[in-house]
């Protein structure tokens, strides 16, 4: 993976509290240490100074700076003096990636991967890689090690390595995503192919079959790609030994109708459509009463008439005993230390009033395993049925 330098702080504590001297944009220092003297060189124009042989031009400086940045990456500076380094996850990448196309967000791809029955060691086709959000999430779901024996995390013996066979027809997006995959050390997990799957099918760059277990289509016209997802043919992209789960990601209901019609004609079963609408639910306990006085996040008012009358009597007695309010609050805080506050109060909840955004409609379907007479005969030999009825 690419390394990145982190500078812990750029806070200058030595000049804190002092007024910094404002430097004018026109004040420049010459490279040989000679400052520009406007009094002595009054007759000489500034333009001739900037265009002298000893002073590099602005274009030369920018080219030198660019070449220096390519050689040495610029360190990241934290103005507050603190740097929090988090472990990279698909969720963090989804929230920070460059939106080259429509992005599949966390609520959608977490549900999609669960419905597609994706697990470590599976092979999944992604048609329409786009910005790479779903690519990273699928790579985590199928990862069970690298295929190379010399890698740090090799695949255990007897298991096939999980793969994400990703396709994208837009060549500039392919080049950017391929570089991101290399930077994130996913070359052995994600196999990116530049191909128009609607016209050219789902073969890999070397012409082989991906032998996939699941399919995810994020295309403008997914029904055009379904004709290539069949078990017939000499080089089918589907795994012949397992049922195939498919998901189509479509923002318009007209696309859903066309996709469902094509799925039915192609023999797919268990067709359903889902729209994920995420809402945040805030659950907490509402504590009300005079015994909550002095505590944070509560309503310190009388919960009923009895508490109000009791507080009135305490106020009358306070005048006689000269007990301060601070003493009463200290007493209530000491009593709160022995109380189980997480069990007190009424349990209430509040959800968000509106859905933040509509992402897309999710169409799911299953293509059952092809069963021939040879498969039936082999199954009968492996699982024999004994006749227990005596004749």
From TrEMBL:
<dbReference type="GO" id="GO:0030488">
    <property type="term" value="P:tRNA methylation"/>
</dbReference>
<keyword id="KW-0819">tRNA processing</keyword>
<protein>
    <recommendedName>
        <fullName>tRNA (adenine(58)-N(1))-methyltransferase catalytic subunit TRM61</fullName>
        <ecNumber>2.1.1.220</ecNumber>
    </recommendedName>
</protein>
<feature type="domain" description="tRNA (adenine(58)-N(1))-methyltransferase catalytic subunit TRM61 C-terminal">
    <location>
        <begin position="81"/>
        <end position="366"/>
    </location>
</feature>
<dbReference type="InterPro" id="IPR014816">
    <property type="entry name" value="tRNA_MeTrfase_Gcd14"/>
</dbReference>
<dbReference type="GO" id="GO:0005634">
    <property type="term" value="C:nucleus"/>
</dbReference>
<feature type="coiled-coil region">
    <location>
        <begin position="273"/>
        <end position="335"/>
    </location>
</feature>
<keyword id="KW-0175">Coiled coil</keyword>
<keyword id="KW-0949">S-adenosyl-L-methionine</keyword>
<keyword id="KW-0808">Transferase</keyword>
<dbReference type="InterPro" id="IPR049470">
    <property type="entry name" value="TRM61_C"/>
</dbReference>
<keyword id="KW-0539">Nucleus</keyword>
<dbReference type="GO" id="GO:0031515">
    <property type="term" value="C:tRNA (m1A) methyltransferase complex"/>
</dbReference>
<dbReference type="InterPro" id="IPR029063">
    <property type="entry name" value="SAM-dependent_MTases_sf"/>
</dbReference>
<keyword id="KW-0489">Methyltransferase</keyword>
<dbReference type="Pfam" id="PF08704">
    <property type="entry name" value="GCD14"/>
</dbReference>
<feature type="compositionally biased region" description="Basic and acidic residues">
    <location>
        <begin position="55"/>
        <end position="68"/>
    </location>
</feature>
<dbReference type="GO" id="GO:0160107">
    <property type="term" value="F:tRNA (adenine(58)-N1)-methyltransferase activity"/>
</dbReference>
<feature type="region of interest" description="Disordered">
    <location>
        <begin position="1"/>
        <end position="81"/>
    </location>
</feature>
